[in-house]
Amino acid sequence: MDTPDLVSEVLHVLALGAEGAASAAGGTAAQTLVGVLRDRLRGTEDDRGALDAFLGNPRDAAGSAAVRAILEREVAADPGFGRHLRVLADAAAERPPRSVTGSVVIDGGARVARNQISLGPLTVNNNRQGRWLLAVLAVALMILVALAGYGGARVFTDGDAGPGTDSLGQGGEKSPGTTKALPPTQRTADAILPDRVALDGTAFESLPGDPFPDGERSGYEETICGDHPEPCGHRVRAGAIAGYAPDGTSEEEGWHAELQALVHASEADAERTFDALVDAFGSDPSTGFRPDPSAYTPPEGAELGDETATYRAVWEGQDIGVMCMMRRGPYIALISRKRDGWAAEMDDETQTWLNTLVLRRMNEALSGDVPHTALRDVPSA
Fold it and tell me: What is the pTM of this model?
């Protein structure tokens, strides 16, 4: 089944489910399919809005065309996702089993007889209701197999489950020897950036009554991807940006930091985004960053993640600071410091302090834990 046919079948399944015309088995598969798609499109509000609009009125031609374009794009970008959509679509199209005569042993504990089907302790009568029950069970098994291969068991969790929730939505400890990164959601992007609690006891601690407390976040549209969507493509599932300014600096020596987190569904997607951003920063002055390896020299033994690139932050052609871009697994962070006063120093020690903080929080997200490293926990120069 090629991509257009697969997408047509998926749209058909979704339409039947939305209109309540699916069989019991097909309805189960349709609901699971909706959950898989919502999870896939998490962090892309326009795409999820298009899906919701289609489910609300599947007969609308424009809405159907919009979702078709989204699905074709996602399948083209991730053939593995397409294979699992195919399994779910096939499950929804299953028909009830035909009547049987005689007796066939399927496995040690399963038996199909003239009037009954025995599956271990479960006995299903060979009549209309029993055959439909068997169809539903078969579809459920196919769905679980498909989800197991794609990490899709999260569709059974609450859509707003936050960081630290495991694949079954229960939280707590993971099985020994297994790790699962936090999902590519807005909550994960927000969690990677240090919050006000993580700043307590440092020069970035927010004071009572501050009109703009440090660590206040904005979403994807305010990140580099909002201003320059091309290098981010449709790979970045969610993004967050927050500002931080130390207390006690004079007007001449003042500076602030801007931290950004971009989360992806896979490490491969993050690698492609990292490379695309490197190209964009090197060729497009409007990004506000200019490649310059001399802008920051990490100390020996510094934690640098899987990939690191260093830039000058610029404004109208003038050097105003430093930015380090770091990738760790499926996460990318942009850690910039910009002058507010003409005498502000962009020293390597402070940059290393912030780099290490964000990298450790990315490591915690990668291990499936809620990021919790605080700035005071990171040794400063």
Answer: 0.55
